[in-house]
Amino acid sequence: MRLSPLEPSQDKVLYQQVADRLQEQIANGTLKPGDRLPSIRKLKQQLSVSFSTVTEAYRLLEDRGLISARPQSGYYVKLTALQQHLEPSLTEPYARVCEIKTSLTFKLFSNLLEPDVIQLGAATPSPEHLPVAPLNRLMAKVMREHPEAHTYNVPAGCERLRTEVSKRMLDAGCSIHPDHLLITNGAHEAIYLSLQAVTTPGDTIAIASPTYFALLETLKALNLKVCALPTHPRQGISLSHLEAALASGNVQACLLVSNFSHPLGTCMEDDTKKQLVELMTRYQVPLIEDDVYGELYFEGTRPKAIKAFDTDNRVIYCSSVSKTLSPGLRLGWCSGGCYHLKVVYRKSVMNRMSAIAPQLAVTAFLANGGYDRHLRHLRRTYQTQMHRMLQAICDYFPAETCVTHPHGGHVLWLEMPEGFDAIQLYDDALQRGISIAPGPIFSASGECYRSCFALNTALPWSDRIEQAMQTLGHLAKKQMAVNF
Ligand SMILES: Cc1ncc(COP(=O)(O)O)c(C=O)c1O
């Protein structure tokens, strides 16, 4: 981006002129939400102005709410232009106990491996953003130097990995001894084992609604029913509905994604997390926490885990490296609180232990592979990509589109006017080589969220993605023109 030289002005001081120039670039779309502004040094040279003129200009743009500073990274264009798109409000699932009906999920998974399909449906990170080369080197080193990679281990998993995980959990506000951690095949297995440990078939589990479709499949496979709670994209589940469900005595456990949930992107406030734990403690009901997105916050510090507020040891914490390092290594963990031994027992009877080589490689990466540096980069990348996608929604989608504005993770949830058919959009889009995640697959009854769909923002932004967004917007407009 180049700005033309400034001209003398009677009524505006220099820094205001610089700010106005940049504002023009933002308004005409040259600088898009999520774009990084030129460094202060670069702009100072380009415009032949002083350092303080540029810093003052940036400060003014911050005051105008157009840009924001990110520590050690620079200034970025904010999502101001997107305020025209409202956020979805509190969801209204059928707040009653129901059996789980899923149908489309396997179709979505089956096209996941098709190279020609643009995967905007499943929340899969792109290998381009993951430290694939260093992990490959570490895997090769492990196989060369660690004969124990070919032996049995204890079900709990490698102690050094558990120590590394335990250190990282301090950032989430949890002080967990490595002996109270179990290494699993991804978060998914951790959740499956936890559910097995605390429920029996026919039990009812309270969940947020919408909920990640693979979790619904897991609940269904275990013959569990759900109580779907109304959920706000910002505030999270309705605690009053949860309390009513707990008071009825018909809920045997609760399963929640605590930070930047999939698909709503919800990150509950600390106070809400605390109240939630108090509620579960009062009714002595276990809570299974899925925190796979906790480290993918865009601003500030890592949000706390629900487990951080657990005074009664009734929260089972589950997470993994699938969203930050590699989904393919299948490495997750679980801290089962007072149910821990039951969870470990289930792991040992199911598959005895997780493969050792990925555990050793990930241990080395966490200990001294630059994990924090990688995370900083990943967060910036995901934030920028999410902004790009939000901008594309602004540019191409019907004005009536409501969309979430999560502060982390990599999923957006879009809500179209009632009567819109997201399954129709899914079919139309797939014919054009684009996969989306239609709303009903996130609903236990399979009947809610027909007008909603989720988009994965983890793919590197490119002309191909931009075009895919344009196509989706066009298909959405076409459907609305015919049906509304
Ligand atoms: C909320 C949530 N939990 C769990 C998982 C799966 O995690 P893992 O690959 O570690 O099993 C996903 C993957 O998309 C997810 O979105």
Please give a structural write-up.
It comes from Halomicronema hongdechloris C2206. Keywords: Aminotransferase, DNA-binding, Pyridoxal phosphate, Transcription, Transcription regulation, Transferase. One of its GO terms (molecular function) is DNA-binding transcription factor activity. A hairpin with a 7-residue loop joins strand 13 and strand 14. It contains 15 helices and 17 strands. It is α/β, with parallel strands linked by helices and 484 residues long. The protein folds into 3 domains: 65 residues, Winged helix-like DNA-binding domain superfamily/Winged helix DNA-binding domain (Arc Repressor Mutant, subunit A), CATH 1.10.10.10; 150 residues, Aspartate Aminotransferase, domain 1 (Alpha-Beta Complex); 241 residues, Type I PLP-dependent aspartate aminotransferase-like (Major domain) (Aspartate Aminotransferase, domain 2), CATH 3.40.640.10. It binds pyridoxal-5'-phosphate. Pyridoxal-5'-phosphate binds next to helix 7.
